[in-house]
Design goal:
Blueprint lengths: L1 H42 L18 H4 L2 E2 L2 E2 L2 H8 L19 H8 L14 H10 L2 H5 L8 E3 L5 E4 L19 E3 L8 H28 L1
C-alpha cells in the first residue's frame, strides 16, 4: 500500500513538473516573439508614403493654348466663331480671319479706346478675354494665371504675350527681350509721361524763343 502511494506521488510530481515546464516554455516563446516584433518596429518605423506633387502645366502666350488639338479648334478664330456667329471674316487691313490669325489682327478692331470701346468694334479685347478666361473651367484646369497672357515690363506696365513663350520649369522666359511682347495701348488717352514730355518741349521752345529775341535786341 505504501509503495502504491509512493508511486502515485512520484507520478503526480512528474506530471506537475512537466506541466510547469510547458507553461514556462510557452511563456518564454511568446515573450521572445513579442520582443522580436517590437525590435522590428523600432528599427524600421512605418512611414506613410508622401503624396506625389501634381505637375503644373506652364502655358505662356496666346498660341500656347489657342491651337487645334484632338480634332478640336481652340484657335483664336475658332473661339470667335463659336461665340460670335456673325463676326466679320476679314480685318480692316484686309487680312482674312482664319486659324492662323494672331492677336495683333484682333487689335485692329478691338484695341481699347479711352471710352472703353474698341477702336473699330463695340467691345475692346480686354473686356472680352479677361472674364472669358478667368471664369473658364478650361483655363483653371490648365493652371492659367495673369502671367499666362501677360508679362511685367521694367516700368511696371503689362505687356501682352502674342507668341508662344519658351520658359523653364518656373515659367521664366528663356529669351529676353520676350518675342512678341506687345505694349498695351489705350487710344484717345494721353498718358502722364506724354503730357509731361509735351509741356517740357513747349517750355524749352519758349525759352529758346525768348533767348533769341533778347540776343537780337542787344545787337540792335
Amino acid at each position: 500500500m505504501n509503495n502504491t502511494n509512493y508511486l502515485r506521488t512520484v507520478l503526480v510530481s512528474i506530471i506537475a513538473l512537466l506541466f510547469l515546464i510547458g507553461l514556462t516554455a510557452a511563456a518564454f516563446g511568446h515573450g521572445g516573439m513579442k520582443h522580436k516584433s517590437s525590435s522590428k518596429e523600432t528599427t524600421k518605423p512605418h512611414h506613410k508614403p508622401k503624396p506625389k506633387k501634381e505637375k503644373k502645366l506652364l502655358y505662356r502666350g496666346c498660341p500656347s493654348c489657342h491651337i487645334k488639338t484632338n480634332g478640336d479648334d481652340y484657335t483664336l478664330w475658332g473661339d470667335v466663331k463659336r461665340v460670335f456667329r456673325n463676326h466679320r471674316v476679314s480685318a480692316p487691313s484686309g487680312k482674312p480671319l482664319n486659324e492662323n490669325t494672331q492677336v495683333e489682327t484682333c487689335l485692329e478692331c478691338h484695341a481699347a479706346k479711352s471710352n472703353g470701346k474698341g477702336i473699330g468694334a463695340e467691345r475692346s479685347l480686354r473686356d472680352i478675354v479677361h472674364p472669358a478666361h478667368l471664369f473658364s473651367k478650361d483655363f483653371q484646369e490648365l493652371n492659367g494665371t495673369c502671367f499666362s497672357c501677360h508679362n511685367v515690363e521694367w516700368d511696371g506696365r503689362l505687356v501682352l504675350l502674342s507668341r508662344k513663350i519658351a520658359t523653364n520649369s518656373k515659367g521664366i522666359p528663356k529669351k529676353i527681350p520676350i518675342p512678341g511682347a506687345l505694349r498695351i495701348r489705350t487710344y484717345g488717352y494721353v498718358s502722364m509721361n506724354v503730357f509731361i514730355g509735351v509741356v517740357s518741349a513747349l517750355g524749352l521752345l519758349n525759352l529758346l524763343t525768348l533767348g533769341l529775341a533778347y540776343r537780337r535786341k542787344n545787337k540792335s
